[in-house]
């Protein structure tokens, strides 16, 4: 089982609320290439993987939950204590009507989280290739966020998350090459 430490993997300390930025970043919570989809993908796939790869998927799937927690903290801090004028002027009113300022998984375009965002095929090579692609799509999304946002309080944890996507990509590649080579 897991041990939960009551701290974020990387600190998030945002001092200025900004609902416009929250609407962009929320995609990494509940969007198609976000942390929720990644964690569910890896924790679902682990059951049909060879033993040593199952452990890797458990490790990374758990870490993705920690990343989801960081993204949630960012969105929460960006929307905490917004006035109704700020909610309306930033275009956050549609989200607010359905969720107030609670966290709800959706993409930046407002599409709700859907389990179709993650794949689980049951073939080790297929799933690890999917996982590598997923990590690259997440990295790409973080790159897009960093192009749009220039506030260092937000960019620092986003850069940390982006770097972890690269590490996960590399680890899945190693598992695909080394641990699944006899399956070919």
Report what the structure shows:
This protein is an all-alpha fold. Helix content is 64%, strand content 0%. It is built from eight helices and no strands. Helix 1 runs antiparallel to helix 4 (51-79), helix 3 runs antiparallel to helix 4 (51-79) and helix 3 (35-45) runs antiparallel to helix 7 (124-148).
What is the topology?
Blueprint: H1 19-25, H2 27-30, H3 35-45, H4 51-79, H5 84-89, H6 93-99, H7 124-148, H8 152-179
Helix pairs in contact: 1-4, 3-4, 3-7, 4-8, 7-8
Main traits of this protein?
64% helix; elongated; 8 helices; mainly alpha; single chain; 184 residues
Order of helices and strands: HHHHHHHH
Describe the largest sheet.
none
Q: Provide the helix percentage.
A: 55-70%
Structural class: mainly alpha
pLDDT below 50 for ≥5 consecutive residues: which ranges?
none
Query: Counting H and I runs of at least 4 residues, what is the number of helices?
Result: 8
Distance between the termini: 32 Å
Shape type:
elongated
Strand content: under 5%
> How many strands appear in the DSSP assignment?
0
Question: Using only CA atoms, what is the Rg?
Answer: 17 Å
User: Mean of residue pLDDT?
Assistant: 94
